[in-house]
């Protein structure tokens, strides 16, 4: 190296300064910035050039407290690994072309370039530096180690040794910079390889490495305490503790997702781990047993740092949250929605009061109370901000006893900070004196507070007799508010967010909302002071779910607004009322519906996204909007009313007709519906508003399979944000069920979440809520047995043949989970392939329902193959006499139907109501199932298919048009035969008699059912959209039923829209987009 020795050059350092390094991908520029704790001025201290081209930065490592590893993920094809030595004033970089570059930080020029490979260029994975002895270790992607050191003749670096195990070949490759641990004093390095092996090298010799075998997949993280022990994490989600002397290891299943970080304190024999989709866990190193899970914060971790002596940790999440944790209490101290998306790195200042977080070019400096101190900029003026990425950072603190540098970089953070020396005796004495003074002050304040309390208590007793009744009234009002808020506060604690960390729930008073003539954006509403920050003491909240009619505005012509306003005025005045759908009453009886008095009992405040969420394009608005989206579960929990506003209207930009069917198919609307389902609120109503004159209760048991990820999304990128939010929703609901000791409900949600919540989303289900799992089984030696033990533990079962109070066995839950290996493992342990649900779960899953029917209903066709191969019967029926083909048909599982037919299932079998497999498909509008049934049996009767579609959930455009195209009889008259269908006949007759005493939509249908045509059924169920489709197809209007009534008579009696009545009189069928006159009200089921 030319010039003065770098060891003699030091930076000018100031107490409490902060240095951050950033790199612009548009050029090889290393910018070094310093932020003083006492001011807000930043200064570019160095900008380095010299390595040509654009670089893809990857996280690298440096020696503890002396070197800083720089790196961050980007999307370029080149690679640069950097290590910087502040105290000696130079920097090193390893490049993709196999060269090493050294900069002089003071002169800002290239000092030396060296070739890292004597043959072809290799890809550097990790760069480790020993600044005390001027040695560096470069690890390539193929596992080759290059050891560089000072030349005996001059100060330049030259290649000392190449360590390579040619016998292992590609198996020795290294895929992660976290997979290398080195001890320069011992002269040993431990490397985790892509094949799952650990290789222990001696840097002073060229002998073959010592091989440790145990992992079966790529090792991503290695931590070592040479020469005794090491800890490694594998991509199969396991952690192994190694004895480096004997080569033995112990294994534990750590997380349900890949382990992204390990932070170890060998002195205290503890370590922290985090999964990509799970929060922190604190483990005991000696027995590999996990303690209590951390609570109160986000469930995902992307980066982590720890200060063991102070007992705190800092994490960044995939959602952009930065969270400070108390390691002693195992809970979050605070959590802030800091960044947009994954937090790439975090860092803690030891014994200090600051911390850092980074996402791309955004670097935030926080204090340990959770307050944002400042944001650090990019490399500086003249650089394109869009091309700036953070390459690394460190917190510097000059103390009376030394200097500290804490590195952080990349999406996987390791806590490699060296603790500062203890404060001197004089400083310690001064601190203790200050503590004593504070203690005396606190004690004096406590005495004063006690005196105040006594005075207030005396005054209260004097006033008690005079205002006893008033006081009781106030206490009762306060108790009601507390009771209303209790479950909301409990949900917030499970959600892990302090109220200060959420975006406030802004609402609009219903009285004012009904007077609005136009919808204004959130920012304009805030400026006009028209929003109210809702809390439970104000009254009731109403969540308004709707579809946007244009990209720039949710309701450009205010069509939806007018429908909602008229509907609410009608409901509150008693002109209309919320009715119960036919199917809901059939399955669950008369359920309570909200009345006009309920809507007027308390003030109502409306949450509408365009009014209550930031709509701006600034970074602040985007961050607040992201926080509001993540706060939707808490909003829904606060809302007593969940209103689905879906009138039949035309979208402004593409003329698409929108209604309830399109609402149910939209990804964001499914997310809101699922948030309602997963909320911890015990009461409340979900109401469908499709026009001003008819409103119905919406309870969607058959929507259980409508996962948000399988819905329609205008932007696929939204799925990631929704997936992360849903993970927390499910976690919250699972904890709620455990608190209520609803273990069957907990098991049902835990195992159906993959199919019902996360299907189609880029996230993994919650899989490890119950701590304390210990087993002697090795997942690589007996994967099936290990999976069974893991499943039984997290579902609270002791044996395979056990059954819970709901009548469900482990195999029942495993089937709806859809894990083929797990089902095979249970069958190997003598589980019955013909197992059944012995007790009904409401009307959704009746008693004696076979596990094969469960698999068919949840679209787990591979599980069906496994059960059929184990000789599960395709003919077993539940108490409603429905077989697996009925359940596959109902769920629109065409492939499952085909599989059952190949296994000789009976398509002609009818259930207790006399409904065939084809009728079941019509009930749910399962077009694919209908087509498959007719393909399997062309002679299958379509009798009453249109009637059943209109009566239940299939009365929307696609199934109705399919049936019309398939030549279903438009004039077919409905009839139930007493001898062939005695149960169905008896139910209709009893409901018909009840109609005279207590009419409802179902009893009206039962009263007029005999000889009624499909068009009459659409009138009786209020499904005017289906009626319009039948009229356009040529349905006759003069046909009479057994009571001599025509469709026109029924429409006039039920006061249906004038446009439809005119069409029934012989006019033209109304247009579907006529908002004022058309309703689309298919009945729904309940959960």
From TrEMBL:
Keyword annotations: ANK repeat, Coiled coil, Repeat, WD repeat
Positions annotated as WD repeat: 212-252, 294-327
A Pfam match: WD40
ANK-type repeats, residues: 806-838, 1010-1042
UniProt-listed InterPro entries: Ankyrin_rpt (IPR002110), Ankyrin_rpt-contain_sf (IPR036770), WD40/YVTN_repeat-like_dom_sf (IPR015943), WD40_repeat_CS (IPR019775), WD40_repeat_dom_sf (IPR036322), WD40_rpt (IPR001680)
Database matches in SMART domains: ANK (SM00248), WD40 (SM00320)
Keyword flag Translocase: no
Positions in coiled-coil regions: 435-466
PANTHER family given in the database record: F-BOX AND WD REPEAT DOMAIN CONTAINING 7, WD40 REPEAT PROTEIN
Annotated protein name in UniProt: POC1 centriolar protein-like B
Organism: Symbiodinium microadriaticum
Organismal lineage: Eukaryota, Sar, Alveolata, Dinophyceae, Suessiales
């Amino acid at each position: 190296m030319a010039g003065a020795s770098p060891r003699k050059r030091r930076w000018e350092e100031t107490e409490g300064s902060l240095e951050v390094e950033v790199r612009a991908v548009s050029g090889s520029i290393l910018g070094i910035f310093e932020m003083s704790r006492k001011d807000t001025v930043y200064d570019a201290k160095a900008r380095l050039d010299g390595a040509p081209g654009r670089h893809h930065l990857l996280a690298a490592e440096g020696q503890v407290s002396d070197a800083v590893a720089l790196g961050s993920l980007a999307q370029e094809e080149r690679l640069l690994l950097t290590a910087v030595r502040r105290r000696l004033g130079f920097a090193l970089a390893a490049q993709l072309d196999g060269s090493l570059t050294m900069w002089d930080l003071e002169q800002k020029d290239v000092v030396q370039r060296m070739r890292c490979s004597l043959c072809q260029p290799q890809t550097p994975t990790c760069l480790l530096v020993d600044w005390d002895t001027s040695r560096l270790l470069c690890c390539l992607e193929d596992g080759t180690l290059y050891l560089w050191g000072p030349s005996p003749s001059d100060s330049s670096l030259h290649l000392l040794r190449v360590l390579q195990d040619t016998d292992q070949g590609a198996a020795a490759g290294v895929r992660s910079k976290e997979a290398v641990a080195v001890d320069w004093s011992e002269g040993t390095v431990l490397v985790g390889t892509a094949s799952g092996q650990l290789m222990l090298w001696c840097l002073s010799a060229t002998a073959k490495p010592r091989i440790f075998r145990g992992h079966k997949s790529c090792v991503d993280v290695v931590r070592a305490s040479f020469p005794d022990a090491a800890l490694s994490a594998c991509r199969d989600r396991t952690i192994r503790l190694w004895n480096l002397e004997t080569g033995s290891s112990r294994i534990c299943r750590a997380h349900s997702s890949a382990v992204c970080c390990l932070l170890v304190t060998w002195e205290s024999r503890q370590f922290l781990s985090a999964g990509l989709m799970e929060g922190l866990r604190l483990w005991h190193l000696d027995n590999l047993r996990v303690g209590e899970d951390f609570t109160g914060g986000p469930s995902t971790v992307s980066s982590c740092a720890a200060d063991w002596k102070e007992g705190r940790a800092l994490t960044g999440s995939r959602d952009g949250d930065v969270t400070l944790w108390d390691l002693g209490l195992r809970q979050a101290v605070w959590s802030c929605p800091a960044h947009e998306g994954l937090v790439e790195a975090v860092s803690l200042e030891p014994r200090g009061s600051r911390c850092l977080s980074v996402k791309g070019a955004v670097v935030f400096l926080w204090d340990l109370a959770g307050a944002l101190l400042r944001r650090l900029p990019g490399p500086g003026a003249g650089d394109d901000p869009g091309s700036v990425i953070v390459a690394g950072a460190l917190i510097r603190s000059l103390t009376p006893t030394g200097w500290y540098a804490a590195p952080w970089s990349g999406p996987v953070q390791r806590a490699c900070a060296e603790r500062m020396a203890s404060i001197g005796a004089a400083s310690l004495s001064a601190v203790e004196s200050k503590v004593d003074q504070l203690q005396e002050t606190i004690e004096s304040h406590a005495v004063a507070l006690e005196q105040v309390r006594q005075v207030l208590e005396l005054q209260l007793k004097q006033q008690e007799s005079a205002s006893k009744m008033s006081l009781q009234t106030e206490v009762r009002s306060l108790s009601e508010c507390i009771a209303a808020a209790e479950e909301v506060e409990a949900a917030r604690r499970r959600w892990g967010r302090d109220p200060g960390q959420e975006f406030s729930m802004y609402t609009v008073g219903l009285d004012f909302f009904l007077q609005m003539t136009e919808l204004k954006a959130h920012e304009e509403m805030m400026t006009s002071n028209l929003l109210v920050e809702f809390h439970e003491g104000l009254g009731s909240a109403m969540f308004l779910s709707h579809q946007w009619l244009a990209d720039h505005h949710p309701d450009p012509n205010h069509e939806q607004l007018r429908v909602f306003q008229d509907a609410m005025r009608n409901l509150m005045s008693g002109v209309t009322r919320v009715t119960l759908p036919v199917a809901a009453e059939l399955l669950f009886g008369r359920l309570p519906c909200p009345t006009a008095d309920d809507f007027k009992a308390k003030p109502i405040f409306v949450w509408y996204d365009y009014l209550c969420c930031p709509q701006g394009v600034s970074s602040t608005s985007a961050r607040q909007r992201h926080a509001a989206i993540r706060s939707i579960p808490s909003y829904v929990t606060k809302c007593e009313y969940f209103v689905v506003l879906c009138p039949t209207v035309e979208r402004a930009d593409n003329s698409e007709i929108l209604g309830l069917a399109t609402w149910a198919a939209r990804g964001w609307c499914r997310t809101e519906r699922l948030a309602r389902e997963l909320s911890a609120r015990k009461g409340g109503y979900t109401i469908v508003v499709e026009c001003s004159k008819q409103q119905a209760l919406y309870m969607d048991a058959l929507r259980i399979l409508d996962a948000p990820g399988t819905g329609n999304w205008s932007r696929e990128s939204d799925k990631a944000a929704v997936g992360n939010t849903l993970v927390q929703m499910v976690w919250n609901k699972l904890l709620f069920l455990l608190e209520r000791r609803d273990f069957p409900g907990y098991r049902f949600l835990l195992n159906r979440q993959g199919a019902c919540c996360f299907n189609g989303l880029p996230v993994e289900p919650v899989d490890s809520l119950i701590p304390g799992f210990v087993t002697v089984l090795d997942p690589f030696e007996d994967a099936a047995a290990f999976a069974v033990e893991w499943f039984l533990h997290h579902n609270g079962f002791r044996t395979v043949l056990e059954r819970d109070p709901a009548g469900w066995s482990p195999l029942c839950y495993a089937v709806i989970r859809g894990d083929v290996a797990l089902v095979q493992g249970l069958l190997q342990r003598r589980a019955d392939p013909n197992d059944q649900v012995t007790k009904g779960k409401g009307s959704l899953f009746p008693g004696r329902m076979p596990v094969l029917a469960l698999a068919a209903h949840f679209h787990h066709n591979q599980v069906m193959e496994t059960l059929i191969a184990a000789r599960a019967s395709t003919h077993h029926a539940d108490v409603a006499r429905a077989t697996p083909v009925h359940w596959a048909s109902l769920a629109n599982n065409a492939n499952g139907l085909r599989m059952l037919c190949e296994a000789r299932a009976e398509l002609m079998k009818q259930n207790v109501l006399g409904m065939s497999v084809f009728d079941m498909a019509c009930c749910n509008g399962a077009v694919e199932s209908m087509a498959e049934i007719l393909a399997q049996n062309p002679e299958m009767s379509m009798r009453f298919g249109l009637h059943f579609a209109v009566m239940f959930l299939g009365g929307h455009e696609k199934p109705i048009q399919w049936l019309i195209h398939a030549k279903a009889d438009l004039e077919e008259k409905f009839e139930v035969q007493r001898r062939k269908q005695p149960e169905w006949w008896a139910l209709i007759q009893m409901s018909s008699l009840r109609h005279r005493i207590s009419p409802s939509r179902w009893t009206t249908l039962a009263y007029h059912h005999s000889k009624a045509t499909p068009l009459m059924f659409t009138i009786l169920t209020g499904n005017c959209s289906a009626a319009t489709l039948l009229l356009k197809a040529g349905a006759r209007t003069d046909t009479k039923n057994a009571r001599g009534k025509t469709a026109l008579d029924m429409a006039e009696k039920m006061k249906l829209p004038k446009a439809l009545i005119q069409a029934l009189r012989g006019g033209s069928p109304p247009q579907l987009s006529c908002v004022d006159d058309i309703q689309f009200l298919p009945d729904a089921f309940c959960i």
